[in-house]
Amino acid sequence: MLQQENGDNTESMIDEFLSAFLCQTEAGLFIAESHEALSHLITVLKTNNFRFASDWKDIFERLNKGERVSVVLSEAPSKQILDIVRQYNDRQGMIQILNRETLDYSSAHIDVNVAKLLIIVSASEQSFAGGLLSTVGMIARVGSNGGVS
């Protein structure tokens, strides 16, 4: 996990994390300590070509297109989101999800060297992130002072 005590180099620390993260083949997790940290993180991710997904279908479609995907979770992740994260890490390129509305399976063959998945939660809502901690690869915390740890 990255260590940064002050917020002086926030953007460069986030960039350093992203440089390492983009070389990984596992999903990543950012924990934002404050609303300001979350806003700053979103801005930095957008400038680094991350697309923000609104639900599991959007994550699935964007990964299938080979995009860098991020999702901000404000509540416990759905079973489909957890399945996508687990399969992204475990199956290295193959994700299969049951669409509960249609009862059909959707499959995606992704290149984990190109398509990236980054989950963001706020520290105040991280209680439900416990299930993600053992599932993701790199984890970073963006502090209320803007620092990364």
Number of contiguous helices: 5
Distance between the termini: 6 Å
**Low-confidence blocks of residues:** 1-8
Structural Rg: 15 Å
Q: What would you give as the CATH superfamily? A: P-loop containing nucleotide triphosphate hydrolases
CATH fold category name:
Rossmann fold
Q: Number of DSSP strands?
A: 7
Name the shape in a single word: globular
Structural class comes to alpha/beta
* Biggest pleated-sheet summary: 5 strands, parallel
Helix content: 25-40%
Number of domains: 1
Strand content: 15-25%
Q: Strand order of the main beta sheet, please?
A: 2-3-6-1-7
Which architecture does the CATH hierarchy give at level 2? 3-Layer(aba) Sandwich
The level-1 CATH class: Alpha Beta
Primary descriptors:
149 residues, alpha/beta, Rossmann fold, five-stranded parallel β-sheet, 7 strands, disordered N terminus
General description of the model:
By secondary structure, the protein is an alpha/beta fold. It has a single domain (10-142), classed as P-loop containing nucleotide triphosphate hydrolases (Rossmann fold, 3-Layer(aba) Sandwich), CATH 3.40.50. The protein contains five helices and seven strands. It has a five-stranded parallel sheet with strand order 2-3-6-1-7, sandwiched between helices. The protein has a two-stranded antiparallel ribbon with strand order 4-5. The longest helix is centred in the N-terminal third of the chain and has 13 residues, at 35-47.
